[in-house]
Specification:
Largest sheet: 2 strands, antiparallel
Structural class: mainly alpha
Pfam family, one: HicB
Strand content: 5-15%
Number of helices: 5
Number of strands: 2
Protein name: Toxin-antitoxin system HicB family antitoxin
Helix content: 40-55%
Distance between the termini: 90 Å
């Protein structure tokens, strides 16, 4: 928003008012009009910021801000993000509603990839991991062959 026309109009009103006075009064008015420009800009910007705060308080979810670009204020309206729809969870017949806490150690690179995948899916890392575990259990991969006789030793030894 260019404030120049408003600042110039105020200066013109001051000079017009001083025109009824002496030459000294008119010179003083011209000097005041020129030196008051930064103070007038600041006062108008403050008034705009106060107005933006009142409008934001009256709006439901949106916000109005006043930002300064160069010498002039800019009014920015930010709409509230629509509420995220809850993820559709498939009902698990084995889920009794209880939550268990575990500690999981992942390589940093794998954790980063999981965080990216969770962000892309629009869910938390925890939700993404729960879904990944559930999907892994729905279609189990064949387990590695167990070692046969003679390959595995159990028990105690003395030397």
């Amino acid at each position: 928003m260019d404030l120049s026309q408003y600042v110039d109009a105020l200066g013109a009103h001051l000079r017009t008012t001083a025109a009824a006075g002496t030459e000294q009064t008119q010179a003083t008015a011209r000097l005041l009009a020129d030196t008051l420009e930064p103070a007038v800009r600041l006062a108008v910007t403050d008034a705009l910021a106060a107005m933006a705060a009142e409008v934001t308080a009256a709006l439901d979810g949106a916000s109005v801000d006043v930002r300064i670009r160069g010498r002039d204020p800019e009014v920015v309206v930010t709409q509230a993000a629509p509420p995220a729809e809850p993820a559709q969870e498939t009902a698990d017949p084995d889920d009794d509603g209880a939550v268990a806490r575990i500690s999981l150690r992942l390589p940093e690179s794998l954790k980063g990839r999981a965080e990216t995948a969770a962000a892309d899916a629009g869910v938390s890392l925890n939700t993404w991991l729960v879904r990944a575990v559930a999907a892994g259990l729905q279609s189990p991969t064949p387990s590695a062959p167990r070692p046969g006789p003679g390959r595995r030793f159990t028990g105690f030894a003395r030397s």
